Amino acid sequence: MAMRGLLRLGEVALRVLDMKAALEHYDKRMGLQVTLTDDSGRVYFKAWDEHDHHCLVLREADAPGIDYFAFKVSDDAVLDEMALKLRDRGYAVKHIEAGVHPRSGRRIEFTLPSGHAMQLYAHKDQIGNHLPLRNPGVLPDEGVIRGFRINRIDHLLLGGPRIDESAQLFRELFGFDLSERLIDADSEASLALFLSCSTKPHDVAFVLQPEPGRFHHVSFLLESTYDVIHAADMIGKYRIPVDVGPNRHGVTRGATIYFFDPSGNRNEVFSGGYVHYPDTPTLTWDTSELGKATFSQDNTPRESFLTVLT
Ligand code: M3P
Ligand code: FE
Predict the structure, then answer these.
(1) pTM for the full predicted model
(2) Which tens digits make up the pLDDT trace of 67-123?
(3) Which of 308, 293, 267 is nearest to 201 (CA)?
(4) Cβ of residue 179 lying under 6 Å from some atom of ligand 1
(5) What is the DSSP letter of 306?
(6) In a mutational test of the pocket of ligand 1, which residue from 294, 296, 303, 305 has the highest number of ligand atoms less than 8 Å from its CB?
(7) What's the gap in Å between 294 CA and the centre of ligand 1?
(8) From the alpha carbon of 219, which atom of ligand 1 is closest?
(9) Core-most of 54, 102, 210, 310, by most CB within 10 Å?
(10) Which helix (H) or strand (E) covers residue 165, if one does?
(11) Regarding the domain with residue range 150-307, which homologous superfamily does it belong to in the CATH classification?
(12) Nearest-angstrom CA–CA distance, 285 and 293
């Protein structure tokens, strides 16, 4: 595939209040696999169909929320290229040596106008997706796909101010497309912006919030729409707090369910959505159809969905 530059969301680092409760949620219920617990007590997870060592890092702290997120890039040269371009635009760029983040090559880190720490890295150890690389077949051994049957990490939604500037950086520097946007029907101000570096409807999104560095949700891909119902059944069985029950987004057209981890961080599992290409026109929603944009099966906006962030 002719893909160079930023490839995908590769890692999200969240704070949790209690690691034991977090393990019950992310490992036992969601079915992510623990690949490492490091000396500092951080726990690293991957989804079954990912090759890289981890996609989620949890750290115990006094308040929930996001420490940083990281995109994987196609090759090492991209890191220097992007560091130069970021510096040209006035961003302070921190260089992180290989190995500081376990099983990872060197990284660069900078802070977005929305207040979020973002990292780029080109290398992370690949430990495999439980299938051989030669004649892989389609199903790993029994017991590997468990819990919510999550295939992989997919995207995240971040809350903060100056979302137009953050989106501009992704478009102009990182080559992302603005796939969709939600604007105020009167002022036309941006309320949410959806950005794609792939054929997915979004890889990252921003929602306008007064406070910088807020976390709305991290989302994981399921194989089928029925798997959303299966996840919802488990969420009910184990009394996991639900934010919004099974529905379909107008934005991105994904079938979705939102729920909270024991620390109040929002998670999403979803399936489907349209295919985005670089020549797909940007879609615009406005607040006169906020319900349809967010939850298209009942056209009803949810107060908590718009206001609860960590
Ligand atoms: C998603 C998604 C908003 C819609 C969010 C959509 C904030 O999270 O996965 O499609 O309106
Ligand atoms: Fe989402």
Answers:
(1) 0.97
(2) 999 999 999 999 999 999 999 999 999 999 999 999 999 999 999 999 999 999 999
(3) 293
(4) no
(5) H
(6) 294
(7) 6
(8) 9
(9) 54
(10) helix 163-172
(11) 2,3-Dihydroxybiphenyl 1,2-Dioxygenase, domain 1 (3.10.180.10)
(12) 6
